[in-house]
């Protein structure tokens, strides 16, 4: 039998994160497209990002029928935050810049690529990327290499660049509490044995 859970953060009531989730405004609009396999993942960082940002929307699915509408909110220019050889490095807004609709696929790399494959409008968007060398605080999940970030970390880094000097670090508070809770639940010995080198893989 499953434990009663918070309907907002989807965590068990005993581990509810809502008190740590901020209420942040951003000039950038964030659209999170979440693969269904991520919804019930214990570390659902896309949901945390969507809850903490007033100008964000989380949509779950594989094929998004209303994607054309989602990608064209008035006053924004859509960009896909996803690696590509021709991706533009994110830079701070100039005073007259139109704000971005930052589209962020959420899932494993394989699932995220599948979302792009199934949604040609998504794949056709101009891409943007973060500067290399970012270090993830996500100590529990193997990543394909250095610089691989969780969804909420990638969003925070993107917003910090675009909207400097505004800080979006409060978005990471529930994420860090979630990781600490997971480590506590598995026990220090198990954590050190499986993740003790501090690297993601």
Automatic annotation (TrEMBL):
Pfam families: DTW. This is tRNA-uridine aminocarboxypropyltransferase. The keyword Repressor does not apply. The keyword Transferase applies. Keywords: S-adenosyl-L-methionine, Transferase, tRNA processing. GO terms for molecular function: tRNA-uridine aminocarboxypropyltransferase activity. GO terms for biological process: tRNA processing. Residues 2-187 form the DTW domain. It comes from Pseudomonas fildesensis. Belongs to the TDD superfamily. DTWD2 family. Its EC number is 2.5.1.25. It comes from the Bacteria. InterPro entries: DTW, DTWD2/TAPT.
């Amino acid at each position: 039998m499953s434990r009663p859970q918070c309907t907002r953060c989807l965590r068990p009531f005993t581990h509810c994160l809502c008190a740590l989730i901020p209420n942040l405004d951003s000039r950038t609009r964030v659209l999170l497209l979440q693969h269904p396999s991520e919804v019930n993942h214990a570390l659902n960082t896309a949901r945390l990002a969507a809850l903490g940002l007033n100008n964000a929307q989380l949509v779950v699915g594989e094929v998004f029928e209303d994607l054309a509408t989602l990608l064209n909110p008035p006053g924004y220019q859509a960009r896909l935050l996803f690696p590509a050889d021709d991706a533009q490095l994110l830079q701070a807004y100039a005073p007259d810049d139109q704000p971005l609709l930052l589209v962020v696929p959420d899932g494993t790399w394989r699932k995220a690529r599948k979302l792009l494959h199934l949604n040609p409008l998504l794949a056709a968007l101009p891409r943007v990327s973060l500067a290399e060398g970012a270090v993830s605080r996500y100590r529990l999940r193997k990543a394909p290499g250095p610089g691989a970030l969780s969804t909420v970390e990638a969003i925070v880094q993107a917003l910090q660049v675009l909207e400097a000097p505004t800080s979006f670090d409060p978005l990471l508070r529930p994420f860090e509490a979630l990781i600490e809770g997971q480590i506590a639940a598995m026990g220090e010995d198990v954590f050190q044995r499986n993740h003790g080198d501090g690297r993601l893989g």
